[in-house]
Design brief:
Blueprint: H1 5-12, E1 18-19, H2 25-35, E2 39-43, E3 49-54, H3 55-65, H4 91-101, E4 105-110, E5 113-119, H5 120-143
Parallel strand pairs: 1-2
Antiparallel strand pairs: 2-3, 4-5
Helix pairs in contact: 4-5
The chain binds adenosine monophosphate.
């Protein structure tokens, strides 16, 4: 049985960093660096998700357009078709979707509102904890 996203958020917290669509790529890069995160949500109206911008989008924009693109708004390069999940999803569900679709961040929604963010690091941590617990149970079973 894989851990639920709700349990993962209870453990790590529900704080999600967001920026507006007019924020420049340069300012977004500063934010990712300062907060030590790999992606940020672009907030739309009424707490809705307008897009996601990851460090990969900034690197791609610089590679394609040069450093001048850092003055451009994030809306020009963010991904708008954002995959999201609800709190009932599990670590295994997210591991599958992240590996199949090749992204490392999934925002969590409840009643259409952003309530958390799960990164690939959170999924890996949670899987390691599960595997350690299973190993403990097996050891206790064998010893007992
Ligand atoms: P990442 O691996 O999360 O750094 O993102 C790689 C690419 O996928 C970037 O273009 C992101 O904008 C995009 N991306 C990241 N997370 C998501 C998501 N949950 N849904 C759709 N695209 C995403």
């Amino acid at each position: 049985m894989s851990v639920s996203v709700k349990a993962m958020l209870d453990q790590k917290g529900r704080n999600v960093f967001t920026i507006g669509p007019h924020t420049t790529l340069g300012d977004a890069a500063h934010m990712l660096h300062e907060k030590k995160i790999g992606a940020v949500i672009i907030a739309g109206v009424e707490g809705k998700i307008a897009g996601i911008l990851s460090e990969r989008d900034i690197v791609s924009a610089i590679a394609r357009h040069g450093a001048e693109c850092l003055m451009q708004p994030v809306a020009s390069v963010m991904t708008t078709n954002v995959y999201r999940c609800n709190e009932e999803a599990t670590a295994n569900d997210l591991m599958e979707v992240m590996s199949a679709r090749r992204f490392r961040h999934v925002p969590v929604e409840k009643d259409g509102k952003l309530v958390g963010m799960i990164s690939i690091g959170d999924v890996v941590k949670s899987r390691i904890r599960e595997i350690e617990q299973e190993a403990e149970h097996i050891k206790a079973y064998i010893a007992g």
